[in-house]
Design goal:
Blueprint lengths: L1 H12 L6 E10 L8 E8 L5 E2 L12 E8 H4 L9 H10 L3 E3 L4 E2 L1 E6 L4 E14 L2 E13 L2 E7 L15 H30 L1
Parallel strand pairs: 1-8
Antiparallel strand pairs: 1-7, 2-3, 2-4, 4-5, 4-6, 8-9, 9-10
Length: 202
């Protein structure tokens, strides 16, 4: 009974309610190329144990909370993390003097929205500000919301602990008028002007 009760919160948090859809976070280190001498590792609970990051977008299990760690390549090449178990990896990342640690916690899930909501994804752009000793400073700079009915919307973080709210995309009919109807009207006017000039010449 105790075991069952322990797993109830996780099970309920993993279930999408009828009429809703889950939006997970994606992340990207935008200036990782500025630190070519370092290896950046994503570690979280309950997973991933250790994932090496690059400039590509990354994501993880929606109920996980993750942090990023940095190790000099020269030090990383001397260890063999692939032979470590989960506990050894966590101990190494948390305690080893060669590891720089970020206090920024990353969440796997943005949240749930109505199934009719056009929001499709939420990409958080991260910037590495500095690596000094065991301190790795990473900042959330922007979030890019993508919709299934229009262009992406970019918002700037004003507060590291508060995610900017997504904007409501424009009315699809308005976009239809702008991209379809307006060019057609412009073409008709142009044809009319050309035809009128030709008739005057005759």
């Amino acid at each position: 009974m105790i075991i069952t009760l322990l797993f109830i919160p996780f099970a309920s948090a993993d279930v999408i309610q009828p009429g809703e859809k889950a939006i997970n976070f994606d992340y990207q280190l935008t200036n990782i190329q500025d630190y070519p001498d370092y290896v950046f590792i994503l570690h979280g609970m309950p997973n991933p144990t250790a994932e090496i990051l690059n400039s590509s977008e990354f994501s993880f299990y929606k109920l996980s909370t993750c942090s990023i760690y940095a190790i000099k390549k020269t030090d990383f090449n001397k260890i063999n993390m692939s032979k470590m178990n989960d506990t050894e990896v966590e101990t190494f990342l948390m305690n080893d003097s060669r590891v720089a640690r970020s206090n920024l916690e990353l969440e796997g899930q943005y949240g749930s929205v109505g199934i009719d909501n056009p929001l499709e994804s939420a990409l958080v752009l991260l910037r590495i500000n500095s690596i000094q000793g065991n301190n790795l400073e990473i900042q959330k700079t922007k979030i890019v919301y993508t919709y299934d009915s229009g262009p992406s919307v970019e918002k700037t973080f004003q507060n590291q602990n508060q995610t900017p709210e997504p904007s409501t995309p424009g009315n699809p009919f308005t976009k239809y008028i702008y991209y379809i109807i307006v060019p057609i009207i412009a073409a008709i006017i142009l044809i009319y002007i050309i035809a009128k000039r030709k008739s005057k010449k005759q």
